[in-house]
Amino acid sequence: MWDDPTEPGPVQGDTIETQAQTEAHLRAFRAHWEGCRRGGDVPMRADIDPRGIEPLISSAFIAERIAPGMVRLRVAGMHLNDLMGMEVRGMPLATFIEPGDRDAFALRLVDLFDGPAVLRFALRARRGIGRPALGGTLMLLPLRSDLGDISRALGCLVTDGTTGRTPRRFGIADAETQPLSGAAPRDTAPPLRTLAGGRSQAPTGPRDRSHLRLVT
After folding, report:
1. How far is CA 12 from CA 30, 102, 136, 149, in A?
2. What's the whole-model pTM score?
3. What HEC string does 142-158 produce?
4. Angle at CA 191, nearest 5°, toward 186 and 147?
5. Distance from C-alpha of 171 to C-alpha of 186, rounded to nearest angstrom
6. 164 — alpha (psi -120 to 50), left (phi > 0) or beta?
7. Which residue, 17, 32, 72, 152, has fewest beta-carbon neighbours within 10 Å?
8. Is the pLDDT of residue 9 over 80?
9. Whether residue 176 has pLDDT greater than 60
């Protein structure tokens, strides 16, 4: 008899050593992000060096905020493609979350950018035919875009267990929000300015046309 798909069940083959190694990689992942913070502020997207997150590079991604509570993947590692069984770039991050948990997930995403805050989720995928028990950890770290607004996120989705038949989606077993101090969002849109040669600086007298010539 196959597993009950409504029950997450235990993750098979998940050893203490594997858990410890995954946790060490997650700490190093966040440490790289922390090292990019200048004066405790949210780092820029351009500050992230792929070499600094190499152990989790296949599980890492860069996401873009497109609306309150909604982000889409701009860059994603191969492991995320493997979980969905397709290319995930351009897809909403919520695609990986069970529909019943997406509203709660969206509220956490608001905190990620507006807080700003660091998010961490403990995930469990439902079991079913060809889908063994699968657990995971999702971490999201806020980033500033090239314009300076907090509208990007560095994230990783690591799993323990066998992927099995795709796509795999996850329920949220636990969630943690850690607000960042000294990193309030700021409006950094460049102020409007008058460009040299613009309409406001146009000469008021007759224009000099001496450089023009008639071509026949």
Report:
1. 27, 26, 13, 42
2. 0.79
3. EEECCCCCEEEEEEEEE
4. 50
5. 33
6. left
7. 17
8. no
9. yes
